[in-house]
UniProtKB/TrEMBL annotation:
<dbReference type="InterPro" id="IPR044929">
    <property type="entry name" value="DNA/RNA_non-sp_Endonuclease_sf"/>
</dbReference>
<keyword id="KW-0540">Nuclease</keyword>
<dbReference type="InterPro" id="IPR020821">
    <property type="entry name" value="ENPP1-3/EXOG-like_nuc-like"/>
</dbReference>
<dbReference type="InterPro" id="IPR040255">
    <property type="entry name" value="Non-specific_endonuclease"/>
</dbReference>
<dbReference type="InterPro" id="IPR044925">
    <property type="entry name" value="His-Me_finger_sf"/>
</dbReference>
<keyword id="KW-0378">Hydrolase</keyword>
<feature type="region of interest" description="Disordered">
    <location>
        <begin position="107"/>
        <end position="129"/>
    </location>
</feature>
<keyword id="KW-0255">Endonuclease</keyword>
<protein>
    <submittedName>
        <fullName>Nuclease EXOG, mitochondrial-like</fullName>
    </submittedName>
</protein>
<dbReference type="Pfam" id="PF01223">
    <property type="entry name" value="Endonuclease_NS"/>
</dbReference>
<dbReference type="InterPro" id="IPR001604">
    <property type="entry name" value="Endo_G_ENPP1-like_dom"/>
</dbReference>
<feature type="domain" description="DNA/RNA non-specific endonuclease/pyrophosphatase/phosphodiesterase">
    <location>
        <begin position="79"/>
        <end position="288"/>
    </location>
</feature>
<feature type="domain" description="ENPP1-3/EXOG-like endonuclease/phosphodiesterase">
    <location>
        <begin position="80"/>
        <end position="288"/>
    </location>
</feature>
<comment type="similarity">
    <text>Belongs to the DNA/RNA non-specific endonuclease family.</text>
</comment>
Length: 364
C-alpha cells in the first residue's frame, strides 16, 4: 500500500535532507531501505566510537565487529501526512509524536467515525501492538497526535489511528484533563500563527520500601507498556500582539486528575523533562529568545463544565432525529448544566430543521 510517508534512518545530516519533503514509498521499499547488505561497509558517521591515533583502524575494526549489520531498532523517525513520530518497538508505544498545527488544520469535514484503530502497516508484526492488547484491559487507546487536530484532511486523521501514535491511557485522564489540554492547544491557533506540539510517554520512578523503583503494567500478549506519566511540550510562534516565540513543558500523571487542577500545576522546566526522556526538544531553537508560554498566554484550560457543554454542542449538531436531539438536551439537566442563549438557539434551530426534514419524508 503506497502512502505519502517517509522513514528516516541515519545521521543528523540525513535528517536535514529528509525534512525537506515527504516520500512516496511502499512497505517493501521501506524494508529494503532498512536492510544493509552484509558485504557493504558500515557507515559509522554520527555514531559514537573511541578515537585512537589511528582512526581509520578503529572504523575498520568497527566494521569487522558489526560484519552483519548494526542491530536494527527500526526507523529513527517516521513521517505521516500531518504528524511525525519516533516509535519504540520494545514498549510498543511512541517515544514522541510531533505536530505543527495552524488554524486551517483544526477545521474541516474529516470524520473520525470513518476511521478505526489499526496496527501501522510499516511496523513488523512482531514489534506492533494490536487492538486485542487493549481490549478489556481497563485502559483507553490514547492519541498523542489527536484526531481533532486533523479535521482538514481525512487521510491525515486516519493516520492518527495507527497504533504507533497510540499508548495505554487512563480513561478518565483521556476524556478529561488530557482532552482539555488538547482543546487548549487547538485554541492556541486562534492567537498564534504556528503551534508546535511534541507529546509522549514517561516511565518515572516511585518510592517503594525506601527505594526508587520504575514499575509499570503491560497489556496483552504483546506486552504494551503502560506509561506512568505523559508529557507535552508546546511551542507557539507569531503572536499578533506579543512575543514571537514562547514555550512550556508539562508532565501529567497517567491517572484520573481532579477537574479543579490547573495546567500550571504540571508545568516543569524543559531541561528537567529532557533529562528524564534522554533527548533534547527543538535542538536548533535559540532558547535565549524564548518566553514562558504560561506567562504569555496564562495556560488556562477550559473548565470541566465547559468541556461537557462542548460535547453537548457537538452532539446536538450531529443529532439525526428529534428523539436523539432531545436525549442530548436532557444531558444538561442530568449533569446540572445551564445552557446559554447560543446553545438554546442551536437546539431550537436544529429541532426545527429535523421536524422539517421529517415532514418532507412523510410527503414522499
Amino acid at each position: 500500500m503506497a502512502m505519502f510517508r517517509g522513514v528516516l534512518i541515519g545521521s543528523s545530516s540525513t535528517a536535514l535532507l529528509c525534512t525537506l519533503g515527504f516520500y512516496t514509498y511502499s512497505h517493501s521499499i521501506q524494508q529494503a531501505a532498512t536492510t544493509r547488505p552484509a558485504s557493504s561497509p558500515l557507515d559509522l558517521q554520527g555514531t559514537s566510537y573511541h578515537v585512537t591515533s589511528d582512526e581509520q583502524a578503529v572504523r575498520q575494526r568497527g566494521s569487522e565487529i558489526l560484519k552483519y549489520g548494526i542491530p536494527d531498532r527500526g526507523p529513527m523517525v517516521s513521517y505521516y501526512a500531518n504528524h511525525v513520530l519516533s516509535y519504540d518497538q520494545a514498549k510498543r508505544t511512541p517515544l514522541w509524536v510531533a505536530e505543527h498545527i495552524q488554524p486551517h488544520h483544526v477545521k474541516g469535514s474529516a470524520d473520525r467515525k470513518r476511521t478505526n484503530f489499526n496496527p501501522d502497516p510499516a511496523v513488523p508484526t512482531m514489534f506492533s501492538a494490536t487492538n486485542d492488547d487493549y481490549r478489556k484491559s481497563g485502559w483507553s487507546r490514547g492519541h498523542m497526535a489527536p484526531a481533532a487536530d486533523n479535521k482538514h484532511d481525512q487521510i491525515a486523521m486516519e493516520e492518527t489511528f495507527y497504533l504507533t501514535n497510540i499508548l495505554p491511557q487512563d480513561m478518565d485522564n483521556n476524556s478529561g484533563f488530557w482532552n482539555r489540554l488538547e482543546l487548549y492547544c487547538r485554541d492556541l491557533t486562534k492567537r498564534f500563527t504556528d503551534v508546535r506540539i511534541i507529546s509522549g510517554p514517561l516511565w518515572l520512578p516511585r518510592e517503594q520500601n525506601g527505594k526508587n523503583m520504575v514499575t509499570y503494567q503491560v497489556l496483552g500478549k504483546n506486552n504494551v507498556a503502560v506509561p506512568t506519566h505523559l508529557f507535552k511540550v508546546i511551542l507557539v510562534e507569531g503572536a499578533s500582539g506579543g512575543s514571537h516565540q514562547a514555550l512550556s513543558a508539562f508532565v501529567v500523571p497517567n491517572e484520573p486528575i481532579s477537574k479543579h487542577q490547573q495546567l500550571k500545576d504540571f508545568l516543569v522546566p524543559l531541561e528537567h523533562l529532557e533529562k528524564v526522556v534522554g533527548f533534547r526538544f527543538h535542538p536548533q531553537l535559540n532558547r535565549a529568545l524564548l518566553n514562558n508560554l504560561c506567562k504569555v498566554d496564562e495556560c488556562r484550560l477550559a473548565s470541566a463544565d465547559d468541556l461537557e457543554l462542548y460535547y453537548i454542542r457537538k452532539n446536538l449538531g450531529a443529532a439525526s432525529s428529534t428523539k436523539q436531539l432531545d436525549s442530548v438536551w436532557k444531558e444538561l439537566e442530568r449533569k446540572k448544566l445551564k445552557p446559554d442563549k447560543q446553545l438554546m438557539d442551536m437546539y431550537n434551530k436544529k429541532r426545527q430543521q429535523l421536524l422539517q426534514n421529517a415532514e418532507r419524508k412523510s410527503e414522499l
